[in-house]
Amino acid sequence: MSVQTEINAFLKKINSSQTIRVSAYEAPKSPKLNSYIDHTALSASLTEKEVRTLCDEAKTHHFMAVCVNPVWVKYASSLLKGTEVKVCTVVGFPLGTHSSSVKVFETAEAIENGATEIDMVIHIGALKDKEYLTVLEDIKAVAYACKKKALLKVIIETCELTDEEVLQASVLCRLAGADYIKTSTGFGSAGATEKHILIMRAVAGDVLGVKASGGVRDKDTALKMINAGASRIGASASVQIIA
After folding, report:
1. Residue 22: what are its φ and ψ, rounded to 5°?
2. pLDDT in tens, 11-34
3. Annotated catalytic sites, by residue?
4. Is 131 inside any structural domain?
5. How many Cα atoms are found within 13 Å in the side-chain-facing hemisphere of 6?
6. If you average pLDDT over residues 66-92, what whole number do you get?
């Protein structure tokens, strides 16, 4: 069976090609925002002091995770040892154009350094070329490296995709064994939208998580994303969001 056939069979099953349905998801009435947030700092100029501040804020406000570049994983892990805050890092970031073997190496090293969550970027060009097997195998390779060691969130960079491509990418994430579908790197031309979260949740059902990232800078926007189907929020303005 071809990957396209698998995608079509899945879409037929959930009837997403005609109607986006999110019956498997029920938005919480009073979400505790801090428990949704990956407190994020991915700037190239990030300093040790800023990483320490990020981790201190995550501990103080009981955020779900901190998300840092790979060079800071070991340090963040040492600062968060003994807490419930998870350490997340990025792989193939921000363009997704690393080879699969490099993404796997990055993943293995990050896990060895203490990461328990991996946010990888797909091969966006391959998706747009409808090279679905390439995209599927790329995700599968990282999913295998994460198996029983770390949660895998797959960034599909929704601002670069049509709605149909968002749908196709989301199905590939599910078929490949990802744990979450994530909207954005935060480095693209735009971030998360409610429409894309709805599409992603329709595919995710109650099996996968959905992470809204990019442009979520206030409480109202965070709540809109959660109501649309997001189960995790990636944000650098986390403290302002929960204020």
Report:
1. -125, 40
2. 666 654 444 455 556 777 778 999
3. 119, 182, 211
4. yes
5. 14
6. 98
Position 100, amino acid: S
CA distance 238 to 57: 9
State both tokens at 161: 């995709």
Global pTM reads 0.92
What tokens does 128 get? Answer: 């747009």
In a domain, 169, yes or no: yes
Strands 37-41 and 65-68, bridge-based pairing: parallel
> Residue with structure tokens 């809109």?
224
Percent of the chain with pLDDT over 90: 86
Task: Give CA–CA dist 37/103, Å, rounded.
Answer: 24
Predicted confidence (pLDDT) per residue in 99-124, tens digit: 999 999 999 999 999 999 999 999 99
Q: Which range of residues forms the domain containing residue 201?
A: 88-106+116-242
Q: Which residue has the tokens 């350490």?
A: 87
Q: Please check whether residue 20 lies inside any domain of the structure.
A: no
Domain count, the chain: 1
Cis peptide bond N-terminal to 70, omega within 30? no
What CATH number did the domain enclosing 100 receive?
3.20.20.70
Q: How many CB atoms lie within 10 A of CB 78?
A: 12
Listed residue (88, 106, 87) closest to 98, CA to CA = 106
Q: Can you give the three-state secondary structure of 120-154, one letter per residue?
A: EECCHHHHHCCCHHHHHHHHHHHHHHHCCCCEEEE
